[in-house]
Structure to design on (681 residues):
């Protein structure tokens, strides 16, 4: 057991951190729901960061660290699926990826070259042409999209499907970890600066403890996500995704409460993190779905 | 104790439902009707006019102002049905619930004659200018000032989060006439007065809901003052007591929970992983409903309602939270164009613990006034 980063991981994390610094603030004139950054996409491609999991010294654990760091940015991009899921699929598939579950609008679908399609128990891969997908207006802070029509699906074997689900869980947890940290940081900043009744809001015990609990939840998700990326165990992936969704539900409520009306505006960036968390909460059957996976893989239940 | 409605209450609810069935457009549920949108404001004028003609706009008001002195249950049943239908009255629910009654109590004869009849006819929109950038929960710290110059007041300052301000005819405005908590006064300010600028705030809760209102040397006649200088706190207390239970949000929350469950059933997805959560949310709606009813019933029996009203409101916040979390988790397509009604509910539910007083302030009241816990050190 060693929780220190290796020198390779250290180097990667600081490179990603440096890259991320250029995207740290929301452009003030942006008042949309999902902030997508083509520049970020470009820089990650240029630096070949989408392939870090395939580099033996780095692997999925370092990729999870990158995903987490980048999720803290107000802008989004198709990063987690490419960095964590794509390398695990047998066939080489072009990115960016998208994800559709049970026929509902899904993340990144309108610009995806590969779409993972989940329908009940089956997992398939589609490679829609640009004309076969379209964007969908959404409150969620990911670009959402859907297929215009039924496209050709290649169904994964049961074993491949299980692997895909596992890595989707890990990707979800790693992404949620970064989003949670950023949402907490944003609320902490607000509670520090905003004064009511002659003192900073952060001086009220009623808020301090709740924020502290949110920070603990975010920290817990981080360890679970990193461990799951490191071990690639089913049980770890299930626990990480469950704790991520549970924490996301709680933290999204709390941080919006802390911000008051300000958190309802598109001028404040909070929604750019919370409305990604809300999207992640719904994936893979939500907490009920993850609980089932935990029952199977941790408790040996035959459900 | 009896948990059933009496025949008169049933009949009244049925009348309101019939009215809604005939007066809401067929595509009502598929429209995104943010409470403050231009289309909603325009719609509300026709709709409230028709409500007024049917005797359903202000039944609880005195006869002099077009009501029939109906009891608190009547107005609550009306409010439930309206909110559950997506509040087709738009911002006019405020006139009905508290602005009209407040003017009846504190307004001069001239103010009453000027402002109450248009409310009773359902043709005017008001906004509530309380909050300011630096004065949210701590309303007493508001800074907008009204200075007397001969026969007029000049009002300068800024309001924020003002719902319906974009379409409002008049603002129920709080401004400072002298220092301290006792120095705040209420002004009835026509929104067309020179010096008022309204800016819509882009938000996740729909078009036209929240605004900034800038007031620059806005000159109003001395008779824009409601009551006496410095009386705002007393007036606000009365208004708040009229709004005690708050909006019957639990009614729409419950309906939307059922709607979400029906969607899941149709898709074959209402299974093991969703039962406990749906059931918990359903119970929270019911708790909020009964809690609120107990407050309405206290009023019907002429009792003064105390801090339990805060408890009822907080129970409602919890119900809204659980229902919206259920929808986000299990019917997420609602947020991506899949169901306009669920989306509109989401946008209302997420402000349940913020708008018209933050939930934490209610909790402070419950702790201090209901539980009699010692106060936090200041
Ligand atoms: C949709 C919407 C519509 C609105 N419409 C109107 C309107 O028409 N007119 C109008 O005047 N206002 C309106 N408001 C404003 C509303 O009244 C305020 O948002 C509310 O009073 C809270 O103030 P705030 O947003 O500044 O939050 P803040 O007061 O800054 O509070 C932020 C957080 O700190 C907490 N907090 C504050 N003080 C304490 C304390 N002493 N102890 C513990 N916790 C505390 C709060 O509970 C909250 O969680 C609206 C708001 C919304 C969201």
């Amino acid at each position: 057991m060693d929780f220190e980063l290796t020198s390779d991981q250290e180097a990667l994390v600081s490179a990603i951190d440096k890259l991320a610094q250029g995207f740290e603030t929301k452009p003030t004139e942006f008042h949309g729901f999902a902030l997508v950054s083509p520049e970020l996409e470009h820089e990650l491609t240029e630096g070949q960061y989408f392939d870090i999991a395939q580099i033996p010294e780095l692997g999925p654990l370092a990729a999870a660290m990158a995903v987490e760091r980048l999720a803290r940015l107000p802008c989004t991009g198709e990063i987690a699926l490419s960095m964590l899921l794509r390398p695990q699929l047998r066939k080489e598939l072009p990115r960016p990826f998208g994800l559709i579950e049970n026929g509902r609008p899904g993340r990144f679908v309108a610009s995806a070259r590969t779409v993972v399609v989940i329908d009940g128990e089956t997992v398939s891969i589609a490679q829609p042409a640009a004309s076969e997908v379209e964007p969908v207006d959404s409150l969620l802070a990911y670009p959402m999209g859907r297929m215009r029509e039924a496209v050709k699906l290649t169904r994964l074997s049961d074993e491949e499907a299980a692997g895909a689900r596992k890595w989707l869980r890990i990707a979800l947890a790693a992404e949620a970890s970064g989003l949670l940290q950023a949402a907490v940081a944003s609320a902490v900043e607000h509670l520090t600066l905003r004064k009511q009744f002659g003192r900073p809001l952060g001086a009220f015990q009623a808020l301090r403890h709740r924020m502290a609990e949110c920070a603990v939840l975010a920290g817990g998700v981080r360890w679970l996500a990193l461990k799951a990326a490191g071990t690639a165990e089913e049980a770890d992936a299930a626990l990480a995704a469950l704790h991520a969704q549970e924490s996301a539900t709680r933290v999204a409520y709390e941080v919006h409460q802390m911000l008051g009306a300000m958190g309802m505006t598109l001028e404040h960036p909070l929604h750019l993190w919370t409305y990604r968390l809300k999207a992640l909460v719904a994936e893979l059957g939500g907490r009920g779905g993850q609980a089932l996976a935990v029952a199977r893989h941790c408790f040996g239940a035959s459900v | 104790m009896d948990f059933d409605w009496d025949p008169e209450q049933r009949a009244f609810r049925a009348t309101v439902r019939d009215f809604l069935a005939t007066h809401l457009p067929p595509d009502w549920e598929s429209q995104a009707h943010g409470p403050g949108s231009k289309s909603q404001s325009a719609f509300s004028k026709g709709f409230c006019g028709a409500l007024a003609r049917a005797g359903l706009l202000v039944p609880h008001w005195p006869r002099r102002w077009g009501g029939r002195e109906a009891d608190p249950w009547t107005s609550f049943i009306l409010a439930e049905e309206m909110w559950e239908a997506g509040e087709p009255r738009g911002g006019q629910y405020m006139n009905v619930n508290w602005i009209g009654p407040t003017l009846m109590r504190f307004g001069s004869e001239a103010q009453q004659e000027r402002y109450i009849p248009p409310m009773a006819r359902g043709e005017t929109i008001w906004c509530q200018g309380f909050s300011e950038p630096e004065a949210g929960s701590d309303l007493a710290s508001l800074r907008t000032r009204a200075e007397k110059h001969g026969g007029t007041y000049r009002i300068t300052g800024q309001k924020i989060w003002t719902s319906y301000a974009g379409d409002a005819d008049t603002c129920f405005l709080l401004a400072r006439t002298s220092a301290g908590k006792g120095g705040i006064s209420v002004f009835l300010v026509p929104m067309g007065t020179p010096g008022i600028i309204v800016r819509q705030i882009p938000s996740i809760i729909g078009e036209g809901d929240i605004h900034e209102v800038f007031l620059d040397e806005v000159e109003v006649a001395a008779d824009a003052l409601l009551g006496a200088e410095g009386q705002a706190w007393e007036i606000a207390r009365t208004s708040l007591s009229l709004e005690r239970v708050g909006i019957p949000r639990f009614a729409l929350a419950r309906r939307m929970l059922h709607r979400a469950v029906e969607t899941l059933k149709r898709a074959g997805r209402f299974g093991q992983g969703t039962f406990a959560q749906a059931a918990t949310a359903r119970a929270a709606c019911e708790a909020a409903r009964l809690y609120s009813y107990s407050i309405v019933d206290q009023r019907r029996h002429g009792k003064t309602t105390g801090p339990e009203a805060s408890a009822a409101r907080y129970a409602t916040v919890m119900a809204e939270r659980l229902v919206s979390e259920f929808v986000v988790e299990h019917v997420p397509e609602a947020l991506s164009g899949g169901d306009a009604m669920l989306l509109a509910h989401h946008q209302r539910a997420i402000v349940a613990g913020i708008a018209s007083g933050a939930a934490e302030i209610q909790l402070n009241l419950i702790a201090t006034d209901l539980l009699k816990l010692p106060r936090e050190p200041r």
Observations:
- Chain B has a mean pLDDT of 94.
- The beta strands of chain B are 126-129, 145-149, 152-160, 170-176, 184-190, 196-200, 211-221, 225-226.
- The radius of gyration of chain B is 21 Å.
